[in-house]
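Lab notebook, bench 4. Still working through the backlog of constructs that have no structural model yet. Next entry is a single chain of 502 residues. Request: give me the structure tokens for it.
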Amino acid sequence: MLLFSTVLDIDQSLTKEAFIRLVIQWNQGSPHTENIIPDMVWNGERNIRFGTECLWLDIEEYRNQNIIAVRYEKKEKDGAVWDTDYVMNFNSMKMAIRLDRSYTVEALEADAKFSTPHFITLLIERGYLTDDHGLPIQKTAVEIDEDNMELAADVINRKTRYRLPVVYISKTCYNKDPVNVSFLASRLKGVAHVLVEKSNGLSKKLRGFCDSRNEYYGAVGVYYPTKVMGHRTYLYRSSVGYDGFLLEKVVRAVIQYGNSQMIDTLFTWQGVNNALLRDRLVCQREERLAAEKAQREAEAQATRLIDTLDEEERRIRKQAFDDARMEANTLLDSFDEEMQKLQQQVEELTRANEALEFENQGLKARIDSMDSVPVLIMGDEFEFYPGEIKDLLLAALSEALKGTPPKSRRADVVRDIIRSNDYQKLGAAKSEEVKRLLRNYDGMTGRIRQSLKELGFEITEEGKHYKVTYYGDSRYQTTYAKTPSDGRSGKNCAQETINMAF
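Model written out:
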């Protein structure tokens, strides 16, 4: 399963030796000791393998196309196999970096977790990455202010398209970042540029340059290089925990775009090895045919020569002929050994293809084993607590069922969905708790405040009222009087709270 893929333009200063040494340094300098291949000493070889069956690094040079391909593989105890590939084409000065996770039976149920390869950081630090139409590729965000506002305007107006997607982050109404910008930029190094407003006052000025199409008040825009993808806006919500949710959505959108791009097979480890194998097989076949032809011609010529000699000379020539035949057979045997090695490589590639087929079959089996097929797809709303969105939908369906003719197709379908989704009535239980708390409300006591807090409400004071906000989201607010004027205040507050939150 492809987890990460990007193709980067590389500076001419990166030589083959520097590339290989950088890969080795990446492995040997890993902070995770279990990932380091011990006793790895490189003496300039271009085709060499280090490590063991479960942890290895292989370097292959494809001279015909001036390519060096490197694969690092680690097999976990649970059966998961992690492959990190670096394929450098020195003709085009482009490098493909790919992270893949394949599966065995034991690993099918494991979650796929990964981080952007640290190797990209090494390329950035050593200045090996070329600029993207004047915009440097880096692991930090570019701050946008009045001096470079045109940079953001050109992205939003689609006047400038970069090779990589551009993530534009606006400040919230409180002049704060909606996500952890430095962490986001680090996660997206090598696959996107990250621009961030210096202050929220810039949004208003930027509107005049892009016909008010710019993101503002914490919204995040992802601008893709292609017209087909266009751009996507993710709105900000002032909810507790929403910043992490928003960050992951942006990272996932950018990574998925990179993974969906088609790349030439010679920018993949399998493609390079297939090309090498094909060229070697052709070369070996031609050399063997030439050797066999030369042997037949030599034998025919030797036979004709022996027939013209006397007995002693015939014996000497016969011995020389036998020695030459033995040498020729030894040479042919060496061809057979080389062919056997190449055949072994074919078998290894075949096993790799079978592993991919197994992965597809395994994932399909997981889908087929599901008792039901999802009816709806999750949107962009952040779930305040586990099961909240599902419970809200089932509650809405249950309420709608009351006004549906009982003997109808709609009623049967709705009842079936409610019955099949284990409706827990979480919102109904919370509603009853709110009613109980506020039944005799005559002011905000410590007990009521704590109970409402446990239900997800934040309470602040504003003049003669308490402002009650659900999970810190400013869209869901109501007020309670500090000194209620009549006996129905508690019931009214409870109903407003229930309508707002559940």
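Notes after review: Residues 105-113 have pLDDT under 50 and may be disordered. The CA atoms of residues 49 and 360 lie 29 Å apart. Flag for follow-up if needed.
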